[in-house]
UniProtKB/TrEMBL annotation:
Residue span, P2X purinoreceptor 7 intracellular domain: 21-155
Protein name (record): Uncharacterized protein LOC106169577
Listed InterPro entries: P2RX7_C
Amino acid sequence: MQVLSSNASAAESRECVRREDRRKTDERCTCGHSQILPGVSENVFCHEVVVVVQDRSKEENVQCITDHPGFEPVCLNKWVLETAWMQFRQQHGGKAFGGREDQRLRHIAYRKFVCWVLGWLRKKIRVTMPSCAVSCIRAYYPPPSEEEEHFTGFKDQ
């Protein structure tokens, strides 16, 4: 698992976090928007992400990355995501993720969030997003019915 971070000591702090019970959201979440996700490694909070904290501090009164003025246009705007999806399909061709519209929009929103926060990542580099961002994107682009509401979550390769 790789947590969104840009400093060298992050590896040490990640190991400590792994040993903690990540499900203690009430004690660890400072933004108030995080939700408990099924996988223990998925419960990363935006105040723990060094790059997010640095970016948040530039904006006044932003307690959560989902409240940042850039979050909605980058990660939730359907037309921006549709355009990003077209670029993704053009770049990846037949290997591009397919599926229902809600799945595609969530998939590309997760990718745009990581790009917005960290910039472009090299091939096969995967990171865990803050649960508040994941939950917000899932709420904005939910599946069409409760029967189809099964989210895979973060898979460490």
